[in-house]
Each structure stands twice: as structure tokens, then as C-alpha cells.
Design a protein that fits this description.
Elements (H helix, E strand, L loop, with lengths): L4 E2 L4 E5 L9 E7 L5 E7 L8 E10 L14 E7 L8 E6 L2 E6 L12
Parallel strand pairs: 5-7
Antiparallel strand pairs: 1-5, 2-3, 3-6, 4-5, 7-8
């Protein structure tokens, strides 16, 4: 598998499965640039917590011989990332090859103070 590069995405959403405590997940979808591309979401590393945590949409091409070539060339993808501990103070910024999109997150609920 070759080293990955930024790829385009069409949509970025944050969902919260119906569990407690809530665990928001980033869902990014689009069309693969090349059949056989594996897509991952890669959080950037910061010294301190940013306003928007950058998350790159990275595609890496595997051995194409293992994957049949689609007739129309457009293969959709959808990838998810658990956002626990990797959000900025206001949200996340999804970064693709041709642009980025900021997604504002609801503030995390404060835990009750013990002994009050």
C-alpha cells in the first residue's frame, strides 16, 4: 500500500449514537478517487487544544489487482471516527484535497460536582 494523500469529501456530519454518556462520531463520505483506495480520518496533533481540531481525509491506494474496476468509476465511501478526546473547543475541521469544512459541536455536558 502506498503512502496516503488528502482526498476530496462530499459530506461531513457529527452523529451521537443513542447511548449514555453521549459519544459523538464524525462521519465523512464522498467518492473514491481511484478503485481500491482505503480512506481513513487522521486527526492532526496540536500542542494545545485548538478552536477547531483538524481531521484530514486521507486515501491510500492498495494493490488494485485485488479489486475489480467498477464500470462507471464512481465508488462511494463512508468512514467514521470516534471524537472522544479529539475535539477542539468549538468543534472539528474536516480537511480534504480541495477544501475544508468546520463542524460545530454541542458543548459537552459538565459533570456534577462531588460534595456540593
Amino acid at each position: 500500500m502506498e503512502r496516503g494523500r488528502l482526498i476530496d469529501f462530499e459530506r461531513a456530519d457529527v452523529i451521537s449514537p443513542m447511548i449514555y454518556p453521549p459519544r459523538p462520531r464524525l462521519v465523512v463520505s464522498g467518492l473514491l478517487p481511484t478503485p481500491g483506495t482505503t480512506v481513513t480520518l487522521v486527526p492532526l496533533t496540536y500542542v494545545s487544544r485548538p478552536q477547531y481540531q483538524g481531521i484530514q481525509v486521507v486515501g491510500a491506494i492498495e494493490d488494485v489487482g485485488k479489486h475489480p474496476m467498477p464500470v462507471d468509476g464512481s465508488v462511494p465511501y463512508s468512514v467514521e471516527l470516534d471524537l472522544a478526546g479529539i475535539t477542539g473547543t468549538e468543534g472539528v475541521e474536516v480537511i480534504g484535497a480541495c477544501g475544508s469544512e468546520k463542524v460545530v459541536l454541542a458543548p459537552e455536558p459538565e459533570s456534577p460536582q462531588e460534595g456540593s
